[in-house]
Write a structure and sequence with these properties.
With about 575 residues, the chain is α/β, with parallel strands linked by helices. It is built from 21 helices and ten strands. The protein is about 65% helix and about 10% strand. The strands form two sheets. It has a six-stranded mixed sheet with strand order 6-7-8-3-9-10.
Length: about 575
Amino acid sequence: MKGNNKSIMTQLPAASGGKVTLMTFAGKYRYLTAAGCVLSGISAVIALFPYLCMWNVIKEVVLNRQSGLDGSSLIRWGWLAVGSSLLSMLIYFSALMCTHLSAFRTARNMKTVALHHLTLLPVGYFKREGSGKLRRIIDDGAGQTETYLAHQLPDLAGAVVTPAAVLVLLLVFDWRFGLISLIPMVIGVIFLGSMMGPGLAESMRQYQNALEDMNNEAVEYVRGIPVVKTFQQSVFSFKSFHDAILRYRDWAVNYAGSMRLPMCGYTVSINGIFAILIPAGFLLLGDAASGAPYTTAALDLTFYILFTPICVSMMNKIMWTSENTMAANDALKRILNILNEKPLPEPETPKVPKEFTVAFEQVSFSYQKEGPRAVDQVSIQVPQGSTAAVVGPSGGGKTTLVSLIPRFFDVDQGRITIGGVDVRDIGTSELMKLVSFVFQDCHLFKDTLLNNIRASRPEAGREEVLQAVKAARCEDIIEKMPNGLDTVVGTQGIYLSGGEVQRIALARAILKDAPIILLDEATAFADPDNEYLIQQAFEHLVKGKTVIMIAHRLSTVAHASQIFVMKEGRIAEQGNHQELVEKGGV
């Protein structure tokens, strides 16, 4: 399995420019998909045979009603109908077995390759795209293609083969009835073309975009429910979520309205074959008057009455599978968009800094190429072992500035150095070893507290973890847990408060023991008791380290050796606490 995934992943870069297909992800299992489609086509043709048997039974009864029926002939046709039906079902079952095996492997490979690629992308990519959107693209997209390959593609193969056989059968008995039966089908195809043309692909893209936006906003809303409840806000305080729902509603209503006339026309035309066939049959039967020609024409009409419902089923199958083909192709394109995202370039000859002074040199950065600069011409320096603070209003660029140090994003202009070495010249794994993060919104895995803390240094022993727990003032958290460090977070009602989560995150950072510490509003969700303990843990965490703190208020970082005030992406003021107070700083 692993070898198969690796071979697929090596094919993808070479198959750029629209050459990657679902079969690329299927690997060697693509031959099962092809076999399934062939078997489905054979099954579809054999499935027509019972209708011929039924017609022959009716023919025997009509032609021999006076001279006496041959029961053995009727029985033979009956058994042929049963046998062909069973054979068709057996072949179709074999086809689905083939396509299901291939579909499961294809969906698995899509998820594996996409998730592996995500691990190579910078952290900033996840912030830009949103976890809800990425989850839907990978999970729902792979599921959608799985359903398409397992069921709809073999059905499409059968639906494509069937028209050739149907056309022959429609014209071989009585070409007049055959042409009459084709008229509603041709009208249906015209209506179907108006719905399934290039516009449908664009509509499918808009539909998926609307779903992704709504899914992403829903995830953000659920995560923000504690804030809503805390500040007694209504659901409409999350305007972006509400707007996403309204956009989806407007799109769905407009699209349904635009499809109303062609869909009604299509449905009426393909289901209206009898409305033309039966009156035409009376006219043609009237011409035959009586006798053998009349009987033959009546039998032919009977065949078309029995057979034409297949045409309706065939047309519907083509319509739905064509739509699902577009949906599967759209899902594939979205996964390929993720795979086309380039990881940050790694240095050819990685360098390792000898000391840990952090310096920004004329750094500028914007989230979009033509968008406003989130960081604009910033030049600051934080000497090794000192503590610096970045303060200012929300949206001023504080978090963005600090995120550029570990290369969550790469700068557009200027450079950031650690010990005089450009961060772009430091290998990613080495850079991650140099920096510890404690953000205001920390997350714990559904795992033991031991493994949650040890995530920063997996090789650490249990005794080292206990020392980090003590330094982070987390002893009370561990003591109240039923299984201590081995308690699994998120099961059997085991949940931690925001402040407790923050302290566990501090234990994780202390265990890592990185020389550079980044703190982003680390006490934002802590109550007074937890905040006091967090402040005590900070003393151990920042000892001898290069520290950059983010805060909104000047008073919370009074102890910092230097403070930088950011407004609209620029450094508006800088100095120590006393100097900024004298200047009337925030």
